[in-house]
Structures are given as structure tokens and as C-alpha cells.
């Protein structure tokens, strides 16, 4: 058989396989493709399914809106755009980034089996991250007869800018996550998933996000359990107490523009600026944008201090597995000299282990408290 015939047969085989992997959603049809795990298990991958309207124009900085119906077939066979990130500058960054991925060993049409579902939330300090297959591939989990859903959510100013009032309430990125959870509940059955067995899991800021969904009444009933890897809603980096100054600093960094202390004027200015300019300016601000406590409202995601809400018991009572990744700080090995100096500093002053927000009194025995922290970390 000559090479030309081989190529024709290969093309026909791939085309036939792709044409058969179709799922009809309430919004329209999507085409997936077949991939293979390291263990040799074939599975269906649907990458780049839109779950919200593109958050552009007047939707910038605002809560996401559900995706509209589409005609034809969406080709969900490759990684979608990633959301603008403070930490990275890549060619695939875009405001049009609210897409999700479904990886499943089965489809609804194959049999009556329904598999448990795991929804993953990436980390990145709420300023970075993406759900790309080459970063967070689902292969090993799928080999345990699970379905994995991952999705992009807005980070940095696009996801967490807040004016501290109703003009830009904030937490748009967390509301993206919420919409992705709702989408999964409404659609995962079509991919062979059991909506009564949805587990939400995430790492770092993704873990803090899992905890936020446990705290938020908006997420009630959307998942049955959570797994938080190296993060919590109680982390000092988990939220911003006073979000208002960030937006005005951001405007100043864009083009040395000073906006008077007026939320509407600030929003109008930031809506007039190309997304790329906002992205570049976000790398120059001293304030780091994060989730916020919102004012009470119908669409508010977080309205109470986290610890107080936990203490009151006004939470979504689901099982939670929480811990720390064993190699969480492995990245510091890139600069061993700096890492060594940091460890030497901790050895010389063990009280540096005490979190800055522990609010110790002047009479507290800091050395004794630090020793207890060290013991827990050992």
C-alpha cells in the first residue's frame, strides 16, 4: 500500500471518528474527539464549549451571562483562548475566554451507566491560570471511571475588579465559576454524568474557590462534596478588604490617567480602554486584586466575612477534604540560593512562621506559638 493510499485511509478514519462524537446540548450541537490516556484507555474530549456570553463591551467586569443558542455545530476539539492573566503574556489571551472542557469515558447514548463527576478549578492567586489540557490533563482520573470538567474563569482585574458598590460589585471570576457549575448540573447527564455525584476540587486559589462555594448560598445544591488542595477561604491572600483603590491605581497605570473618586467615571474610562492595555497595566499595580466582600444583593456571591460565616454555620454543609500538596513549593528550587537564605532566616527567627493576620496580643508568647506551627508543619 503506497503512502498516498495510507494517508487517504487515515483521513477517512479520523473524519469518521470525529463525525460520530456529537452531543446535542440545549444550546446547540458540539463535536468532540477521541483521546487516549497513558494507560491506554480511550475517552471522549470536548474542549472549548462556551458556557457564557463573551464578557466583552459592557459585560466587562460584570457577572457572566448564560450562553445563547447557536446554529450549526461547534468544533470542540482544541483548547480555547485563556483569560487575560497578570502573570503571563501569551498570544492566546482574550476577553472571550469563558469556555469549559468535558472529558468522559462514556456518552449518554452508549448505556444507562452514570459516572461521578469532578469539576476542577485552577489556581494562580486569582491573577493567573487556565484550564488547558497540557496543564491540567484529566487522564489519570478518567482511568478511575470518572468524568472530569474543567473551565476558564476570569482572573486579575477582568475577574476581580470592584468599586465596592453596585457599579462594579466584584467577584466576576467567582461568578464565572458559579455559572460553570450550573452549566454542568444542567448538561453533564448528556455526557454520561450523574448530577447527584458532583465533586468540586481545586488547587491553591482553586482550593480557596472551593471553600468560597461552600460559603456562598448561590452555590447551594450544585455539588455534593469538595476537595481543597493547598488553599482556603481563610488564607490572607484569599480576599481584599478594601478593593476600591485598585481600580483607580489601575487607571493611573494605563496612561497616567487620574479619575476622580467616582465609580461610574472609572468604569466608563476602563470600558473605553482596549483589554490589552488593562492587561499590561495590571502588572504594574502595587495592589493585588482579589475576591471581595460584596454588598447585599440578589446576585451577590460573598456578603459576609469568611470566618464569621463559618462560625455561624450558615454554609453549604457538604463533606470537605482539605490538605496541602506535598510538593507545593517545589518551584522555589529554581533558585536554591534564595531558598536556602529564606530557610536560614526562618531558623534564626522562628516567629516569622506566624501569619501576619493572626492578630496576636502584645502579651502573646510568639516563640511558643511559632514552635506549635512548626510542629504542625513537620
UniProtKB/TrEMBL annotation:
Q: Which residues form the signal peptide?
A: 1-19
Reading the lineage from the top rank, the first entry is: Eukaryota
Task: List UniProt keywords, sorted A-Z.
Answer: Disulfide bond, Glycoprotein, Hydrolase, Serine esterase, Signal
Q: What InterPro entries does the record tag this protein with? A: AB_hydrolase_fold, CarbesteraseB, Carboxylesterase_B_AS, Carboxylesterase_B_CS, Type-B_Carboxylest/Lipase
Report the coiled-coil segments: none
Query: What range(s) does the Carboxylesterase type B domain occupy?
Result: 21-375
Note the Pfam families from the entry.
COesterase
- Known EC number(s)? 3.1.1.-
Which SUPFAM superfamilies did the record assign? alpha/beta-Hydrolases
What general EC class does the enzyme of this chain belong to? Answer: hydrolase
Q: Which family does it belong to?
A: Belongs to the type-B carboxylesterase/lipase family.
Name it. Answer: Carboxylic ester hydrolase
- This chain's source organism reads Molorchus minor
